[in-house]
Amino acid sequence: MRSAVERVVERKFGPGGPFHPDTPGAWKESRKVRDSARRHDERFIDCVSLMAQHALDRFGKFPGTVPTIWVLVYLRAHHLDLGFYDRHFFPGAYLDTHTRHMERWHDEG
Fold first, then answer.
1. Contact at 8 Å (CB) between 19 and 33?
2. Can you give the residue range of the structural domain that contains 13?
3. CA nearest 34: which of 50, 17, 48?
4. Which terminus of the chain, N or C, has less C-beta within 10 A?
5. Are residues 5 and 36 in the same domain?
6. The whole model's pTM is what?
7. Dihedral angle at the C-alpha atoms of 48, 54, 60, 64, nearest 10 degrees?
8. How many other β-carbons are positioned within 10 Å of the β-carbon of residue 64?
9. What is the tens place of the pLDDT at every residue in 24-59?
């Protein structure tokens, strides 16, 4: 399980990963945003590896008590702070429906 945890960490923080500064993104300052993520230290990797190994040893599979492939279906609805997106993201980060939402649903323009 230690090897699996190390591979996940490398996938997250290595080249092409979501937290690698050279991975392109939608933010105006993608390098700064991605590079701000704190890389997992050895203590964290040791802890996660130990817990994952315990689950594998105890239940004979990982994850231990839920199906190996588990997709949760859910819907999330919220108001976007368009000013935040305008400030930190490139144009096109949200849909025209988001732009019109307040006017359509809340009589605001």
1. no
2. 1-66
3. 17
4. C
5. yes
6. 0.70
7. -60
8. 15
9. 998 999 999 999 999 999 999 999 999 999 999 999
